[in-house]
Amino acid sequence: MATATKLEVLDAKGQKAGSVDLPESIFAAETNVPLIHQVVTAQLAAARQGTHKTKNRGERSGSGVKPFKQKGTGRARQGSVRMPQHRGGGIVHGPVPRDYSQRTPKKMIAAALIGLLSDRTRANRLHVVDSFGIENKPSTKAARDYLAQVAPGNRVLVVIAREDEVTALSVRNLPFVHVLFQDQLNAYDVVVSDDLVFTKAAFDAFVASRAAKEDTK
């Protein structure tokens, strides 16, 4: 079993309210940059719709009759106004619908995420908060002020538990914040964020899920 280090848990006022263990298997792993690049590229490729399509000459509307006679005009011979060189004609070698997704093994996806989390931890860009101090009613202003105090980065990834609806509603309209549930955490959203802010409930759930997966190996 890997050893663990500690990370402070901040309360609603930004003060220390305890600590959590950081398992080395998750937060002190080697950061493999080529692997991260491959996983992030595959994730972006899978998000592409691939519905692009252009019409070839057979799909363009227009007459198939020769636009002018074959000989005697001094011009190059033409067979149809739907040919690519004519305005409104077909497109040559244009894009067609395709699937951009790449097969990426689950172990590679997990290793890329763990490597990124470890990198953010070493850079002191990982934060765990007890709560945002927002009770019952969502408040975007309160969430903005709290994040400005806790996470100094320009782009912040907030990771919350599934049942934390108040926090989700409070941060979702902040332009510099992206919010995810702990089971949605992925390499792309981590790599494009400067700071990661976990609520303690989300952090505990994420670490527990990772430990359960390691136990099943």
UniProtKB/TrEMBL annotation:
Pfam families: Ribosomal_L4. Transmembrane segments: none annotated. GO terms for biological process: translation. This is Large ribosomal subunit protein uL4. InterPro entries: Ribosomal_uL4, Ribosomal_uL4-like, Ribosomal_uL4_dom_sf. Belongs to the universal ribosomal protein uL4 family. The gene is rplD. GO terms for cellular component: ribonucleoprotein complex; ribosome. Residues 47-100 are annotated as: Disordered.
